[in-house]
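Researcher: I'm preparing a figure for a lab meeting and need a structural model of a single chain. I don't have an experimental structure, so a prediction will have to do for now. The sequence is pasted below. Please return the structure as tokens so I can convert it later.
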Amino acid sequence: MNSLRKKIITYFLGLFTLPRVKEIIAGYARMFMGEAGRYSTGIKAEAVETKETFTILTKYIKKEKITWEEKKRFKKQAIAILRSSGVIVPVMLVPLPFVGTLLLIIMDHLLLSMHIQLLPDSFYPKEKKDLLTAEGIEQDLKKDKKFLF
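Model: Understood. Here is the structure written out token by token.
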């Protein structure tokens, strides 16, 4: 039994140290780090926008005058809060570490490839050069055909 375990471990160590496999894994790690940065930037932007929305709400509660622009921003951010809480909260309830984040990334990219934005606008950069799209997937597959087994 112990010998079989050593053979399996040796096999996987040999497999994961192949240059081609190391390059693929490193590519996935870079992609994950880029996506994690995009999500953290989106969360920071949402926090700032939510703080502004809270300020507008307190003005309204105090019966102060609210401009048309403030009403528009409040409505947009309220919708964004409801949209993100309906998506992010259930996914993040998965008890395993990082699994919720991975599920969110996979779900977001799957829907982005169908041109559906799941999260609020602050999670998506203005220029969509690094986002996963259907066209980008096809280009990556054509470019990285040599890595397919």
